[in-house]
Structure to design on (379 residues):
């Protein structure tokens, strides 16, 4: 994956074997989406701030007579912006020099005049570059909002965690999007607007729908290439090289292709961060260090708390585990038949449920569990 023109946006990515083939590493489909969803909003605010500073310096550089010191200030702002950008998800994976070819500044000051002259290629390139600079953070924010809405409203409770199950959810999603467009069209007709007022209101509706929902299609350019297999030495892989106008389009394709492969970004029920759930698995917890418990993962902490929740209080959980371990040992030694095991375990579970629901006290539960451990017929 690399920048095509050394721009803020506009790059090519390689897809193959269920992965995105970055120059530095290979990630499964959907992993880049997870990284962007987990991006701290403060980082985006800082990128936006650096972007605004750079745009102001570019404007100052292009105004008035040529000033070498202003060229230096613009270069400094550009370095600060790209140094920060290179640490963001996706951009951190790209192999590219972070000085845009359209801003050569001090080395070739005569290019400045061409950038100021309408109709020349350098001027057109600069305008396109500035537009992408302005749209970068809004594009990332829009993607994050759409993705969170899609994943939390349509995929949070899906039972079939496979490519087929996710395709069914997407069918429901796109049907809903189509319905929203129909409602927007009907609302527009009801307002009985004409001329410029009609066009402005229609644009408002489109922007609102675009903000909330993924488009069903977006333009890309695809070229097929054979590349060395990222995991099998000596093997090759047929990959798709896809050109994207902006990072939002790449992330949209990464998410959709991930879902098609059975990969679902899911929010951890313990720490609240996103993780990639691969096909066939159904866990609500990630493998990252748990907040406040660095020696345990969220999955370990979440599973423990779930067990406590299912088994009642900690005391009930301890007693339940003690008696079941005792019965397991007797069954393993052959002193407890399968029928006896099933009968005793039904009683153990019924007593646990009685304790959880407050029908018996913890002391009574322990007494009855002691009797079961000794395999007394009457309790």
């Amino acid at each position: 994956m690399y920048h095509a023109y050394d721009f803020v946006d506009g790059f090519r990515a390689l897809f193959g074997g269920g992965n995105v083939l970055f120059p530095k590493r290979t990630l499964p489909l959907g992993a880049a989406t997870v990284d962007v969803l987990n991006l701290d909003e403060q980082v985006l605010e800082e990128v936006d701030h650096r972007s605004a500073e750079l745009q102001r310096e570019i404007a100052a550089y292009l105004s008035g007579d040529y000033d070498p010191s202003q060229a230096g200030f613009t270069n400094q702002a550009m370095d600060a912006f790209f140094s920060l950008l290179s640490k963001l998800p996706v951009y951190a994976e790209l192999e590219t020099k972070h000085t845009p070819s359209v801003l050569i500044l001090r080395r070739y000051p005569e290019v400045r005049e061409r950038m100021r002259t309408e109709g020349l290629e350098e001027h057109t390139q600069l305008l396109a570059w500035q537009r992408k600079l302005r749209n970068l953070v809004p594009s990332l924010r829009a993607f994050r909002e759409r993705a969170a809405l899609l994943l939390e409203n349509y995929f949070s409770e899906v039972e079939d965690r496979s490519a087929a199950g996710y395709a069914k959810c997407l069918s429901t999603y796109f049907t809903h999007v189509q319905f929203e467009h129909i409602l927007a069209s009907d609302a527009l007709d009801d307002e009985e607007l004409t001329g410029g007022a009609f066009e402005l209101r229609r644009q408002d509706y489109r922007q609102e729908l675009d903000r909330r929902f993924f488009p069903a299609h977006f333009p890309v350019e695809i070229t097929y290439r054979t590349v060395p297999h990222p995991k099998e030495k000596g093997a090759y892989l047929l990959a798709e090289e896809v050109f994207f106008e902006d990072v939002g389009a790449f992330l949209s394709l990464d998410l959709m292709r991930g879902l098609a492969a059975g990969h679902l970004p899911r929010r951890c029920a313990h720490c609240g961060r996103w993780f990639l759930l691969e096909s066939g698995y159904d866990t609500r917890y990630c493998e990252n260090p748990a907040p406040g418990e660095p020696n345990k993962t969220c999955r370990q902490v979440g599973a423990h708390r779930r067990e406590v929740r299912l088994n009642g209080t900690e005391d009930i959980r301890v007693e339940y585990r003690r008696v079941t371990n005792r019965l397991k040992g007797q069954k393993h030694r052959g002193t407890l038949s399968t029928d006896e095991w099933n009968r005793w375990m039904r009683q153990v579970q019924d007593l646990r449920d009685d304790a959880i629901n407050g029908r018996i006290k913890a002391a009574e539960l322990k007494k009855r569990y002691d009797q079961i451990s000794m395999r007394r017929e009457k309790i």
Observations:
- The radius of gyration is 29 Å.
- Residues 32 and 90 are 6 Å apart (CA to CA).
- Confidence is low (pLDDT under 50) at residues 1-6, 98-102.
